[in-house]
Amino acid sequence: xxxxxxxxxxxxxxxxxxxxxxxxxxxxxxxxxxxxxxxxxxxxxxxxxxxxxxxxxxxxxxxxxxxxxxxxxxxxxxxxxxxxxxxxxxxxxxxxxxxxxxxxxxxxxxxxxxxxxxxxxxxxxxxxxxxxxxxxxxxxxxxxxxxxxxxxxxxxxxxxxxxxxxxxxxxxxxxxxxxxxxxxxxxxxxxxxxxxxxxxxxxxxxxxxxxxxxxxxxxxxxxxxxxxxxxxxxxxxxxxxxxxxxxxxxxxxxxxxxxxxxxxxxxxxxxxxxxxxxxxxxxxxxxxxxxxxxxxxxxxxxxxxxxxxxxxxxxxxxxxxxxxxxxxxxxxxxxxxxxxxxxxxxxxxxxxxxxxxxxxxxxxxxxxxxxxxxxxxxxxxxxxxxxxxxxxxxxxxxxxxxxxxxxxxxxxxxx
Length: 415
Known about the structure:
alpha/beta, eight-stranded mixed sheet, 11 helices, 35% helix, globular
């Protein structure tokens, strides 16, 4: 009986509580509704925010600027390869010692500079003497070098040969035609600076490397008083007032067909580190007409170098005088030369050309008593013993220091 009474009382209390709760909800509807709205808004905001972030990231990745297409070509240039009889006779003796009775072995002369040609795309040489298999070798004043010399140059890494210099007519028209034919036979090699005809002269030599086109032109101050016959078809372009319009026309045309115009110029005062009047006046004209790189030879010793502003806003670079690559000259100043090395870059999107990382690497022509054992020594590994045993009278460390003082510090590279 008591259990029933207690259960009835509990039921009554539960009913009253339910009515009270219902009443409370009806009296405060705004408070509950506000809470529900807040919770719903928060959930909706979170759901919306997450995909918005993802969309933003995807859009950013899509619109990022692409990397520019920058191409680079490494270029090397060397000065006068002046082959006296002392050099080719020792090469002949070395070949005979190896069982080649008629050949010439020039490996010893150049072996210590082979490393400079690693990773080089274009290597330019001023071949000061004509090269041929058809004529007998000869010495100063009318030079002629055996064909094995040219093959060694190609093997070393030279693929561009300039022959527009004062010794190009040393063996007359016959010698010129012979050396032109010789270089045409060397696969993958460009030869310029002298030509077999007017048509050949107007056929500007070009080379494309890594999407960058190079054009090559060559001019000489004189040819030692030697001239071609009046009825010849051959051409050698001297730097004279009469030829100035022709030179300008060629440089401007080369600029229109190539990204980089390389002009080899044989000018300056022999065995002098100072610039001549012609070097000072002619060089800016070449830059004005479109030259990008000017390679100077003839002085047989080192001269200065610099950037020159171009009319289009870019900059050209000029080595006024590289000196000798090798020779058997007797003047102390002629023992020091340089190998030029630089990088040409092109922005393929804008077409902009720049010349960067310019180097002037010193080398020494080394020989002993009576011009024995002539070869090239890198200055980076040159020793006091080599200097003291040099066969050139008066060649001292002061001589080396004097010549190197003409190289601006930012370009001098002892390596």
